[in-house]
Prior knowledge:
mainly alpha; about 220 residues; 3 strands; three-stranded antiparallel β-sheet; Rhomboid-like fold; 9 helices
Amino acid sequence: xxxxxxxxxxRTTPWVTRALIVVNALVFLFQVSLTPRDLxxxxxxxxxxxxxxxxxxxxxxxFLHGGWAHVLGNMLYLWIFGDNVEDRMGHGRFTAFYLLCxxxxxxxxxxxxxxxxxxxxxxxxxxxxxxxxxxxLFPKSRIVxxxxxxxxxxxxxxxxxxxxxxxxxxxxxxxxxxxxxxxVGGVAFWAHAGGFLAGVVLVRLFALPERRTVEWWDPYPxxxx
Length: 225
């Protein structure tokens, strides 16, 4: 399932979401300019190696990606879901929330495989936190989704609770299936699951109280009697 957009208009300009997308894009363009050897060293230096866990590496690893599909997929999800979550938290709170979810994601992957020497990179864990927050804040929303079915491609509106719930279960089951396997790299499913759960929990602390009760379908919340 490929999300195309959601149905919720944002009331504020998502400056942080846009800035994160720009920074991720610039870093990735720098990555593709490197030679294969330099890129390997760059990822080793700034990716997060669980066996050599470091807080600075947690932050830098969140802005590295492993390929075009990786970065484009992550930025698509951040673009669709980030603006509405940022709208409910405010710019500063959303920044702190995003980084904390990235930290929680990294810790989850570390706990699952603390001896791994494979660098973990990508914004997926932090963005998973954004998805968790979106699910809590907008469970009645709908996600306009492209559903490829062999030669037939359909565009459907899927309730957010089903779309994001299915996404989380996929990460959880895949993470369980990866337990005990050899350290061959691949997708950090536990980082995704941990980041998502962190978002579900932390959204209650970071969402602005005056914005929690504003329904997304009410375009003029300040004019209500």
